[in-house]
Amino acid sequence: MSNPQQLRYSKEHEWLSAAEDGVSTVGITEFAANALGDVVYAQLPEVGSAVTAGETCGELESTKSVSDLYSPVTGEITEINEDVVNDPSLVNSAPFEGGWLFKVRLTDEPSDLLSADEYTAQNAG
Fold first, then answer.
1. Average pLDDT, the chain
2. What is the pTM of this model?
3. Which of 96, 97, 80 is nearest to 42 (CA)?
């Protein structure tokens, strides 16, 4: 399992891209997608809604379970990935590319995000 070096990661298995014009993209990691199993439904936050770092903002439902989706940052949702809403399996097949979940305009960035190496080490074993 390879975690892209340019991303940062939360302990809850979300990834966050570097901000472009104050907006970052959020998704779940390959580790989380594999743990979930086949994702069959994605409930994403609404565009324009506020999210808070570490708090739930949606859920992913798989053939095995329902898991809360956490926001790794505080900000406002600017876009959701309609492709994932229509085809939730993208979360499994391309978690770091086409399976991204939402974009958020950052108002605050937590200091506890992990590097790719730190995230990989946390989940090794």
1. 94
2. 0.95
3. 80
Backbone torsions φ then ψ of 93, nearest 5 degrees: -80, -25
Question: Could you report the per-residue pLDDT of 59-107, keeping only the tens digit for each?
Answer: 999 999 999 999 999 999 999 999 999 999 999 999 999 999 999 999 9
Both tokens of 86, joined, read 């229509």
Q: What CA–CA distance (Å, rounded) separates 2 from 99?
A: 16
